[in-house]
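Aim 2 progress update. The chain analyzed this quarter is reproduced below.
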Amino acid sequence: MVKNILNALFFVFVLVSCQNKKNVKNEKPNIVIIYADDLGYGDVGAYGATELKTPNLDKLASGGVRFTQGYATSSTCTPSRYGLLTGTYPWRNRDAKILPGTAPLIISTDQLTLPKVLKSKGYQTAVIGKWHLGLGSGNVNWNERVSPGPNEVGFDHAYIMAATQDRVPTVYIENGNVDGLDPNDPIEVSYSHNFEGEPTGQDNPELCTMKWHHGHNNSIVNGIPRIGYMKGGEAAKWNDVEMADHFLAKAQSYVKDHKENPFFLYYAIQQPHVPRTPNPRFVGKSGMGPRGDVIVEADWVIGEFLKTLEEEGVLDNTLIIFSSDNGPVLNDGYYDDAVEKLGNHKPTGGLRGGKYSLYEAGTRVPFIVYWKGKVQPLVSDAVISQVDILSSLAAMVGSDEIGPDSQNLLQVLMGESQMGRDELVLEANTRTAFRKGDWLLIPPYEGPEVYTDVNIEVGNSSEYQLFNLKTDQEQQKNLASEEAELLKEMIASFAKARGDEKKNVEDVELK
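Predicted structure tokens:
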């Protein structure tokens, strides 16, 4: 009898000890950043969309902090991803621009990065999805391990596409190696010339199942003409309509395999970037053509991923940040009914501009922070940028690292304060603008006012543009002439923020 009691007590002791170890092991929260591609401010129900249904994103927004003034650092993808991962404004790096699939890595291997910060505090780190920050050091041989890449800038595990879905090489890369490559069918890639005998969208439109509109008329893969030329690697080429499912499965597996210790997952989904190729399950679901369908698909993917976190018992201890790399674009290279079937939907949410633009719709994006039971529901008007995520998360995990342009806004991120940024430099295709308080300054730039291929106002003007975003969120009234003194102050502050104080403010010509 006594022996049985002792055995029972020992069993209880072991259970309590294991539970205590488990609690210690999960002391730090898991961190997941879900990053959409070209998703606009108005593409989510929680941000005003009425024609598109995004129930899973809306659930995150209603259960966490929904920022109304959350910004990407740039209105195009590569620069924004650079800013997010390095805490550095992309315009400081002249190579941080839209890259071809063969570009070298633009993050220095000795540079501070978000995964490095978290890794130094005991986190497992992974990137799954779109990369588009360059690979290797130039002249990449895709038939060998490609390095440097994500693994060399802080990610323990990387399962990525090299650039974008519309660019070659159209293969997945796992920790530097092309996934599923047949060594007897080597890959060749070029952005300057085609390979003999290889069909292109320009010369062989009859082989295309998707018609190109501009700039997407090189190698044809899965019936889709791409940017750049590729030969070989047939067994390794991705299936476009299965891409969302494929990346989801990789993300789910990562959670299941790494849930016992704190992890950081940068889950960069490809939707709704072109080519928009929804799985057949989602074709026609939105009534808006492929662009709407892939947004519905993306919402479903996020819902399935959240289910996995819950089923694996880690949702309550996982901080989730959702955002987009830049604003929306409809026709971005293919005829896919994005314009024709738009209906009453407003991807910009009423903001001016879009992708490629210095106007608000270029960089103001959905920005949601969710942590079940830890972050209380809140709509926050605080100004915050993705460049601030590095320093904010560093503070959360007990690191004193600070990104060069990154502010510690952890309390803002967690909804405990609405004292966000006072100043922010924004970027679009190497052009910059400046927000200070409620005011946005766009200096004069040469070039077209509208990119005709995509039909988006990009912010170029021969005059200074000054907008009060509190009273004129749609940026319809340029107050540069009326607010002469404020304009000079803004120019001076902008020059200081850029480290360009030698600009002579007194010589500003008001037009």
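The two ends are 97 Å apart (CA to CA). Residues 438-507 form one domain. These observations will guide the mutagenesis experiments scheduled for the next reporting period.
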